Amino acid sequence: MKNIITCVDSSAYADDVCHAGIWAAQKLNKTLLFLHAIEKANTPVVENLSGSIGLGAHSSLLKEMSLLDEQRSKLALTVGKEMLEQACEIAATHGCSSVDKTQRHSDITEAICDLEADARFIVIGRSGENHGKNFKALGSHIEQIIRQVNTPLLIANKGFKEPENFMLAYDGRETADKAVKRIIDGGLLHNLTCHLVTVKNKQSALAEKFEQTKSLLIESGFNVKASLLEGNIYDALMNYKTENDIEMLVMGAFSHSKIAQVFLGSNTLKMMENTNLPMVILR
Question: SS3 of 70, please?
């Protein structure tokens, strides 16, 4: 696995995604692969209108729509290539020696899945080009990607900068233990101060697991600041983040389950929606 797949588009997060990808590629010494996906526009398909336009305008309108559709596709292709070229130039100016690019005619999730076999990390913006600068508009593709891929995901924020610390929300569950292993084995978060935070819950032997995790991280070379908190999980984590100037959040991914409420009711989603920080999601 050698590529840092970095998804570029025309969203407000484009430059930040680019810089986040550069940081990850340099930290892991991997190839920076810029990906641009040309997704199908949400407009009527010409063929589907063949039986619904009449009154003599049928043929001319269909022909005009077909030409417009062809022009739009060509323009999207050209604009995408320019974005990829610009991203490569930025990477070169920041000293990236191994940079590649690819363009796909597909949904962004499908494009990532096709490339995942050779991916080390995936970098993407928190919302797509259709959301403008709406901070809370978490792109629907985020949930899809988290559910369908097993590769670690970095969700870039506005104004991304190289972090010096990160907060790991540990809850004693299997996903959290897997996230810890990913952190230790991965390399991306090495040399960053780790704020290991747990909010008391109903998990059995949570305090013991918390201490074991703290020791494991310290033994692996991390500078750890550990805190066992009480109260509402979401509020406690958000308050800790603010009071300790946290620069990046790290979480274990939620279940692959497609039951909507499993995802929508999670503290993970609430943190993602209300935090203007870069986030690393580990499975």
Answer: helix
